[in-house]
Amino acid sequence: MIAAGRPHASAARLLAMDAAGAVRHRPRAGLAGLFEPDDLVVANDAATLPASLSGTHIPTGAPVEVRLAAWLSLDDATRFVAVAFGAGDHRTPTEDRPPPPPIESGDRLRLGPLVATVERTYGALRLADLRLSGTGDTVRAGVARHGRPIQYAHVPEPLALWDVWTPFAARPIAFEPPSAGFALDWRTVAAFRERGVGFATLTHAAGISSTGDPGLDALLPFDEPYRIPHATAAAVARTKAAGGRVIAIGTTVVRALESAAAGDGRVRAGDGVATGRIGQETPLRVTDAILTGVHRPGESHYELLRAFASNTALEMLAAEAEAHGYRPHEFGDSMLIERDHPHRLASVRSPLLSSCHGLTAASIP
After folding, report:
1. Is 120:138 a contact under the CB 8 Å cutoff?
2. Phi and psi of 231, rounded to 5°?
3. Whether the Cβ atoms of residue 180 and residue 334 lie closer than 8 Å to each other
4. 271: helix, coil or strand?
5. DSSP 299-351
6. What are phi and psi of 173, to 5 degrees?
């Protein structure tokens, strides 16, 4: 595991805000102590693809980096939405990367052992639809051999693939890591069980988090496929019936659960596609709390948090994180936000608040 990018588990911190807006600091290792029997923790078990592919633009011979950003088809593992850059690598901030050579529909890109054909471009933007030559199996093999994990300038050392896999990573379909899952390990899951807290997983193809282009970033997140096992849907139903909370580990879990929710809050098992943004006006039918990284206003992940808390509460939380030096980005510290339930009686005790009291800053392709 990379020492420069990720704090040691015992040093990682957690900033928790309960439904009443009270904020507490605590070590992240004590996460299980914030949950109560009958609560359910849901994590994304998608493993991360080495989705950064370097190569050349065949018509001009110019260097190009392609970052696979989303699946174009649930049934075809050779077609992707991709973001292209010119010369350089991750050590240059994404927003400072030069554009790729002019790319037109029909152009081909040589990406190591793979050849990509541009099926569609989007005006002057660096976004394109690509088809990689070969079958699904040969494309997967070529990506595995030639690709590298997508990374950004805040971690200068090259990442290995296992650096971007959570402890419970399973099927490799994510383009960037579902990084909230880095806060968990099997000891934490064991602590959940000791407290009577449930743990379940789903699979969501987390897409790219930044393109370096403000216009493109405004479109994020792209449509993302997910799969919810029957066991997970049943666990959500049991939790709701028992009056427990559903805690999402990361924004991808929120997108999947809310996309799969019927009008009555029942979660449908099976495959689906999460479309559109979750934001301030989105009614949450399933998720009661979210564990996530430290995000900044303007980021798509931050916009999703507006569904859980008011602008004032989030501004206070962001100021608290900055004042205490919380680490942002995918290998940083964590925040736990419990959403307010207007229908709750004032006399009902918040489990999160009581647990924190007295603590100080101590079919998918």
Report:
1. no
2. -65, -35
3. yes
4. strand
5. SHHHHHHTTTS-HHHHHHHHHHHHHTT---STTS-EEEEEPP-TTS-TTSPPH
6. -135, -5
Give how far the C-alpha of residue 38 lies from the chain's centroid of Cα atoms, to the nearest Å: 25
User: Within a 10 A sphere around the Cβ of 224, how many other Cβ atoms?
Assistant: 24
**pLDDT averaged per 10 residues, the chain (length 365):** 47 91 92 95 98 97 97 88 94 92 95 97 88 95 96 90 94 95 94 96 95 88 95 98 97 97 94 92 95 83 91 92 89 92 38 35 40
The CB density around residue 62, as the number of other CB atoms within 10 Å, is 14
Beta-carbon contacts of 275 under 8 Å, excluding residues fewer than 6 positions away, are 223, 259
Q: 62 pairs with which residues across the strands? A: 57
Q: How far apart are CA 10 and CA 34, in angstroms?
A: 17
Confidence at residue 43, expressed as pLDDT on a 0 to 100 scale = 98
What torsion do the CA atoms of 84, 87, 93, 97 make, to the nearest 10 degrees?
A: -60
Helix extents (H) in the chain: 136-146, 186-195, 214-217, 230-242, 251-259, 300-305, 311-323, 351-356
Report how far residue 32's alpha carbon sits from residue 39's, in angstroms, rounded to the nearest whole number: 11
Q: Which domains does the chain have, with CATH numbers?
A: 13-47+158-356 (3.40.1780.10), 51-146 (no CATH)
Two tokens at 230? 């029957």
- Contact present, 32 and 14 (Cβ < 8 Å): no
What radius of gyration, in Å, describes the C-alpha atoms of the chain? Answer: 21
Q: Which amino acid is at 275?
A: T
Residue 272, SS3 per DSSP: strand
Q: In angstroms, rounded to a whole number, what is the distance separating the alpha carbons of residues 182 and 166?
A: 5
Across the chain, the runs of DSSP E, i.e. the strands, are: 13-17, 23-27, 40-44, 47-48, 52-57, 62-71, 79-85, 108-111, 114-121, 127-132, 172-174, 198-204, 224-228, 246-249, 270-274, 289-293, 334-338
Burial class (CB in 10 A: 0-12, 13-18, 19+), 186: exposed
Q: Distance of alpha carbon 339 from its chain centroid, rounded?
A: 19
Quick: pLDDT tens for 162-174: 999 999 999 999 9
